[in-house]
Amino acid sequence: MCESVSLVCDKNNVLNRYIPYTEVLNRGYGNDSTHMKKTIVFTILILITQFGFAQNDKKAVKTSKGVLELIKQKDYTEFFNSFEDTIKMRIKEYQKSAGSDYIQKMVDDFNETLSNAKIDFDNFNKKLVVPIDGNSKLNYVVYQFPMGKKNDSKDYLETSFLNENNFTKIYSIDIVKVQRMPNVKVILGAEEEKIPESGEVVSENYDDTGFVKKIKYRDFTHLITIDFDRHQNKTGETRFPLDNLTYKSFTAYYENGNIRLLANYDNGLVTGNFTEFHENGKISESGFYGNGLKKDGVWTYFDEQGKLTKTETYENGKLINTE
């Protein structure tokens, strides 16, 4: 993940759901004996498909072992090159804000977390993740390799691969400490969010229409909640880091889909970078909140055409200068 000892693609905030391979294979077919020929053909297709799955499993295990070895050897360059090209582009973009040593720090964090733990590559779990919008190009397969003794470990190394590619480049890598996530509740003022199980999507509907009011799910690093109005427009998205549940990042949206607000909260109080937008997508104001809701540094204000209208400088909440 981008914030701690894992790296996973944000996937543009597209909601995903886990579908077992058996369910993918068995969907939509009955047992009518009058369709014997179709059944025979389908059985042959199943055998071919399952053979393809087995081959992909071998490739995935081999690639995962190779990436783990790169981590242990602290080969930062080749570790970076082990990702899909789209992910490498996102890493490069993220490094602009996180720093050029981002990959090095991540590999070092992986080594510290692994601490010579034994990875069981023979007994893995596998899940197919399908974007809810049906974009098959974003289908990816998640492999979970137990850490520690067989059938006795709550932790695992997790890698994923784009389903349409050849399983020689990873889409994501993560070390999951399952024992740190047992039915945790996030309590921030009036908020109380129970973390769903991995792969579970929880929805809340409007009583009168049955339309979706809120959905909640968990990825490898965050609890994510998405709110909708009665016309099914997304009004807000909140992301709680699983390793710091008193903190959240919040994005609010206008009805036209443009972002209205980007803000962060710690124990219910706004903190860090803060940006508001006009409805046309232009920035309205931007600045930084320090501790205790105190503005700090330079704050800028713009009109709807994007023209700078005012600049303020604060020091620990005190206005120092206005231009």
Automatic annotation (TrEMBL):
InterPro entries: MORN_2
SUPFAM superfamilies, per database record: Histone H3 K4-specific methyltransferase SET7/9 N-terminal domain (SSF82185)
Organism domain of life: Bacteria
Protein name (Swiss-Prot/TrEMBL): MORN repeat protein
Organism encoding this protein: Psychroflexus torquis (strain ATCC 700755 / CIP 106069 / ACAM 623)
